[in-house]
Amino acid sequence: MVYHSHYHIAGNNILYVGVYGPKAPCEEVYIKHIGHNNYQVSYKIKDRGEHILLVMWGEHHIPGSPFVVSMF
């Protein structure tokens, strides 16, 4: 399963994204800058169950991060 998320972030920093599944971290996470401080994040999930989606801008989590994502 492939999922997409979109984020709008202002300023200059580094975007960090991680997805942790019930058995191991997600092996494929892609970040694409789509212009005007907007980013598209895609990740491929192999295992069913609860996953943690962590999104950080520099050293700080974006509001709501980490997110719990359930895949059943």
From TrEMBL:
InterPro entries: Filamin/ABP280_repeat-like, Ig-like_fold, Ig_E-set. It comes from the Eukaryota. Filamin repeats lie at residues 1-71. It holds the Pfam family Filamin. This is Filamin-A-like 4. It comes from Homarus americanus. The lineage of its organism: Eukaryota, Metazoa, Ecdysozoa, Arthropoda, Crustacea. The gene is cher-L4.
